[in-house]
Write a structure and sequence with these properties.
There is one protein chain. This protein has 139 residues and is mostly helical. It has four helices and no strands. α2 packs antiparallel against α3, α2 packs parallel to α4 and α3 runs antiparallel to α4. The longest helix is centred in the C-terminal third of the chain and has 49 residues.
Length: 139
C-alpha cells in the first residue's frame, strides 16, 4: 500500500520554487482564465456516403464511406471531436474517390457504347450497299 502522504503529493499540480529574495506578497496577483472557442462539430458526410452506397458503390467504396460516416457520427455524439474529424475526413476521401471512379466509368461506358453503335451502323450500311438485289442476300 502507498502511504497517504505520498498519494497526496502525486495529486498536487507541479509547482516552481520561487527564486531566493522574492516573496509571494510582493508578486502581483492575477487570474488567468482560458476560454476555448466553441468549435463547430465536424461534418460526418452521412447523406453523401448513403447516396454513394446506393448509387455508385464501385469497389465497395460507398459502403466503406458509410461505415466511416457512422463512426464519425458516433464520435461526435460522444464529444470526441478529433476522432470524429478523423473518421469524417476518411469518409470524405472515400466519397471523392468513389465519385471520380464512377464518373470515369460512366464516360468509358458511353464511349464504348458510341463506338459499338457506330461500328454496327457502319456494318449495316456496308451490307446494304453490297447486297445482291436479285437474291436478297449478301453473296
Amino acid at each position: 500500500p502507498v502511504p497517504t502522504s505520498l498519494r497526496m503529493e502525486r495529486s498536487l499540480p507541479p509547482y516552481e520554487v520561487l527564486p531566493p529574495g522574492l516573496n509571494m506578497e510582493e508578486l502581483p496577483r492575477s487570474t488567468t482564465v482560458l476560454v476555448e472557442e466553441e468549435r463547430q462539430p465536424p461534418r460526418d458526410h452521412l447523406l453523401w456516403s448513403l447516396c454513394t452506397t446506393l448509387y455508385g458503390n464501385i469497389f465497395c467504396l460507398g459502403f466503406l464511406a458509410l461505415v466511416f460516416s457512422v463512426k464519425s457520427r458516433d464520435r461526435k455524439v460522444l464529444g470526441d471531436y478529433s476522432g470524429a474529424l478523423s473518421y469524417s475526413s476518411t469518409a470524405k476521401c472515400l466519397n471523392i474517390v468513389a465519385l471520380v471512379l464512377n464518373i470515369i466509368t460512366v464516360v468509358i461506358v458511353v464511349i464504348v457504347l458510341a463506338l459499338v453503335f457506330s461500328y454496327s451502323l457502319h456494318q449495316y450500311q456496308y451490307s446494304q450497299e453490297h447486297s445482291n438485289p436479285y437474291f436478297g442476300d449478301n453473296t
